[in-house]
Amino acid sequence: MKTLYDVQQLLKHFGVFVYVGKRMWDIELMAIEIDNLYKANAIDKQAFLSAKLVLTREHRVEEEYEAAKDNLE
Known about the structure:
YqgQ-like_sf; elongated; Helix Hairpins; mainly alpha; 3 helices; YqgQ-like; Cytosolic protein
């Protein structure tokens, strides 16, 4: 798993579709859903860790984007 799209496809496999309207919130909700799938033993440790790494990276990128956007205003 390398991209946010890959994580979305994993969630889609379990019938989980995430769209809150703000990218940051989508990423955070996906992280919660991944946690729940792992706790329910629906995904293995490797898939869990890969998804969490992708989500952590995307969350950091989004935070940096928001900070840069705020500095321009």
